[in-house]
Design brief:
There is one protein chain. This protein is α+β, with helices and mostly antiparallel strands and 479 residues long. 38% of the residues lie in helices and 21% in strands. The protein has a single domain, classed as Nonribosomal peptide synthetase, condensation domain (Chloramphenicol Acetyltransferase, 2-Layer Sandwich). The chain has 13 helices and 17 strands. The strands form four sheets. It has a six-stranded mixed beta sheet with strand order 5-6-7-2-14-13, sandwiched between helices. Strands 9-17-16-12-10-11 form a six-stranded mixed beta sheet, sandwiched between helices. The protein is globular and about 60 Å long.
């Protein structure tokens, strides 16, 4: 039994009937070399052997009375693995469009808070004979980057199924605490707020002052990001509905673009996003003039650890990166993104990577939850300029092929939540050979999300073609 940290708890407080704070992942498996199909039984057996490597999967939350303290994680005494792994009710063969539509349906439903906050759907009978796993887990359980680290625990490096070491000590479920115990724990925690609050507040105020000085200097130099984003058709009050587009591009092409124009892979992703959205907005009758603002989550775990044994809690921050829609030249846009991303990193560094986590510690649970529901229920996002237009995440995945229950993993598509005020979240994950792109949208704000995915892929192909025309000597000098 352990108390949830402030950042993890914030993902629970801010969840509303229309803003689901879970992340979704789609894994595509090629079972062509196996004898027989890989289905729900094989996946359940594989996960049963490794469940102890993912401690959050057997925990559920218990909320103190009146929300006077952060929730507790307890080892769920009613945990049953079979209740979390289900067979998708889809008619075979399942097309890629069928899969995307099903993932959107799954993403549009909240998780049950009375049991561990995750579920997995096994999609059998893809058109190419493969199987897909659609996993949904609440953001409060673990950070996105930490979730990526768990891949090493869940999968094998060869087709042969590795033997997993047994759990060092038998798993013991907790007793569900009663009202008196919860009240006592909450009252015991209150003095800690009094000890920690002044120091944390001083650090946050200092960080805000440093960020303000940096922003003023950047404004004088003409590199400062605007404080608000332009209102676009992407922005407004969201609904509970979700639509999904799953795409992939050749990772070697992305690396060649990076080398040719002396940028980073993240710059390439942001620039391709801007180019794709420029064309999407124009196709839907909007003017491309202006600069979008992308919220880019940043993992700020400082312990340097990786893998299943590391800290899986959320230690995240976010930086705001301008995405210019003008001019039309995609290379100029890439270079502009590179320059502005550097300024955004400097601003984020001035604010302090842990400041957002410290700020979340000041949120009274009941006030935070009530405010989020009022904001969402009254659709207040319609009444003010957005802080940012979309969310863009870049996650480093495994650089080698992986296997699950003997089947090769041919695709890993992550998707972050759609948040109030913006209808679009684009997440990329690099793996052995591809850059996998998962796009989640609110269809009422972003109709035709598949157009966004196609435009992103086209933007990468265009940049790759331009990179190929660079002189070899210039590439060597830049790289």
């Amino acid at each position: 039994m352990q108390r949830m940290n402030a950042m993890d708890a914030a993902f629970l407080y801010f969840e509303t009937p229309t803003m689901h704070m879970h992340v979704v992942g789609v894994l595509v498996l090629d079972a062509s070399d196996l004898r027989g199909d890989i289905g729900i039984e094989g996946i359940t057996n594989a996960l049963e052997q490794r469940i102890h490597l993912i401690p959050p999967f057997r925990r559920r939350i218990v909320t103190p009375i009146a929300g006077i303290d952060h929730p507790l994680w307890i080892e769920d005494p009613d945990f049953e693995l079979s209740e979390h792994i289900m067979l998708a009710p889809l008619r075979t063969p399942v097309t890629w469009h069928d899969l995307e539509r099903f993932v959107g349906d799954v993403a549009g439903r909240p998780l049950d808070r009375h049991r561990p906050l995750w579920e997995m759907w096994v999609v059998e009978g893809l058109e190419d004979g493969g199987t897909a796993l659609v996993t949904k887990l609440h953001h409060s359980m673990m950070a996105g980057a930490a979730g990526g680290d768990l891949i090493a625990s869940l999968f094998d490096l060869t087709p042969g199924i590795a033997e997993v070491p047994a759990e060092p000590t038998p798993w013991r479920p907790d007793n569900v605490p009663g009202a008196l115990e919860l009240a006592a724990r909450s009252m015991f925690s209150l003095p800690r707020y009094g000890w920690e609050a002044p120091r944390a507040l001083a650090q946050v105020v200092g960080s805000l002052a440093e960020m303000t000085r940096t922003w003023i200097d950047q404004r004088a130099a003409g590199t400062a990001a605007p404080l608000t984003a332009p209102r676009t058709s992407l922005n407004g009050a969201i609904t509970a509905h979700r639509s999904v587009s799953l795409n992939r591009v050749d990772l070697d092409k992305v690396r060649e673009i990076r080398r040719a124009f002396d940028t980073t892979i993240n710059d390439v992703v942001l620039a391709a996003t801007a180019t794709g959205l420029r064309r999407y907005l124009m196709a839907h009758g909007a003017s491309p003039i202006g600069t979008l603002i992308a919220a880019v989550p940043v993992d700020v775990r400082s312990d340097g650890t990786n893998g299943a044994g590391s800290d899986l809690a959320n230690h995240v921050s976010s930086m705001m990166v301008p995405l210019p829609l003008e001019p039309d030249d995609p290379v100029e846009r890439l270079r502009a993104v590179h320059s502005r991303a550097a300024a955004s990193k400097a601003l984020h560094s001035a604010f302090g990577p842990q400041s957002l986590e410290q700020l979340s510690g000041f949120l009274p649970p009941t006030v935070a939850s009530t405010a989020a529901r009022l904001y969402s229920g009254l659709k207040l996002a319609r009444l003010h300029p957005p802080v940012f237009n979309l969310v863009v995440s870049n996650i480093s995945g495994p650089p080698i092929d992986l296997y699950c229950a003997g089947a090769r993993v041919t695709g890993i598509f992550p998707m972050g939540p759609v948040v109030e005020g913006t209808g679009l979240n684009l997440t990329v994950l690099s793996e052995a050979h591809h850059l996998n792109v998962g796009i989640m949208a609110c269809p009422e704000l972003v109709p035709g999300v598949e157009e966004v995915g196609a435009a992103f892929v086209a933007a990468i192909e265009e940049l790759a073609a331009l990179a190929a025309t660079q002189r070899p000597s210039a590439r060597r000098h830049r790289g």
